[in-house]
């Protein structure tokens, strides 16, 4: 599996932008308050420039604290979006069998990469709830990989 690279020096700046945006969205109606909407747009522009990702949506970081920490969100923002590629069965096996070695933003990135490249919108369920797909609840990652390969679109 390839390594996901981010510029570690940008993490503090991304954290500041994300925190400001999250606080702004928690305190103001950024859809209807003209000044708040402008401030949020500026924060989005800053984060997009920092990350080099013109499609990054600042609203994705609303209430991040309810499910993760600020550093994880900053790392996620600084990662390039997963590309659409043609994966071989062997590559899918390698990713699935190694996926639980990742944590936080890296785990999210690989799950999203697999979702994009297998066409399975509920890919996360395959990993964490294999019994939803006819496998044993305690199925091995090898068994889960084979099921993903069989079901991919």
Characterization of the model:
The chain has helices at residues 11-27, 34-51, 70-78, 89-98, 104-118, 123-128, 141-151. With 153 residues, the protein is mostly helical. α3 (70-78) crosses α5 (104-118). The mean pLDDT is 94.
- Unreliable parts: none
Number of helices: 7
Per DSSP, what share of the residues sits in E-state strands of 2 or more residues?
A: under 5%
Order of helices and strands: HHHHHHH
General form: elongated
The chain-level structural class is: mainly alpha
Radius of gyration: 18 Å
Describe the biggest sheet?
none
- End-to-end distance, in Å? 22 Å
- The tally of beta strands, per DSSP, is 0
Mean pLDDT: 94
**Percent helix:** 55-70%
Spell out the key features of this protein.
about 0% strand, single chain, about 150 residues, 7 helices
